[in-house]
TrEMBL record:
This is Class I SAM-dependent methyltransferase. Keywords: Methyltransferase, S-adenosyl-L-methionine, Transferase. GO terms for biological process: methylation. Transmembrane segments: none annotated. Gene3D superfamilies: Vaccinia Virus protein VP39. GO terms for molecular function: methyltransferase activity. It comes from Methanoculleus palmolei. Signal peptide: none annotated. The keyword Transferase applies. Its EC number is 2.1.-.-. InterPro entries: Methyltranfer_dom, SAM-dependent_MTases_sf.
Amino acid sequence: MLAGPVRGLFHSPYRIIKPYLSEGMTVMDVGCGMGFFTVPMAKMVGRTGRVIAVDIQRQMLAGMVRYAGRETVADRIEPHLCGADSLRVERWNGTVDFVLAFMMLHEVSDQERMIREMHSALKPGGRLLFAEPVIHVGKKTYDGELSGMKAAGLRVATVPKIPICRAALLEKPCCMDEGVIECPV
């Protein structure tokens, strides 16, 4: 179900994330599972791009690697096993253009830490697409998660429409000098 064709009817990776990705980007899929978004992301960033696929379950990463191999994009993906207490992604701090956190934050016990780690991984001007399922995550809980992202220093750029989800595209400002939140030209 999590990687099957029926899910693609509701959550087409190309429709949902293609507008935010381009050739050569470094992107991170947090809670990648079997690679439903990871493999299409690897195609979208092209041969010069990189996808960091983060999951807590070794079996999910192994399944994602098999899927990526069948789709001939495994060389663009770096599987990363995180811990229950941390994403352990410090080596990528400040290097990631785009982070996807799709229908997974509600499952994390230390959301504040995870949000800080995703924020740290992003380079200035980087973006994070955050979505939660309306069925499992009520508006109050979602608003609390979104407030945590704002408290970490991210700002809402837009609110994309994603079926059966509440979602926000957030950006890491380039400059915080005296309230300036846009990148200098």
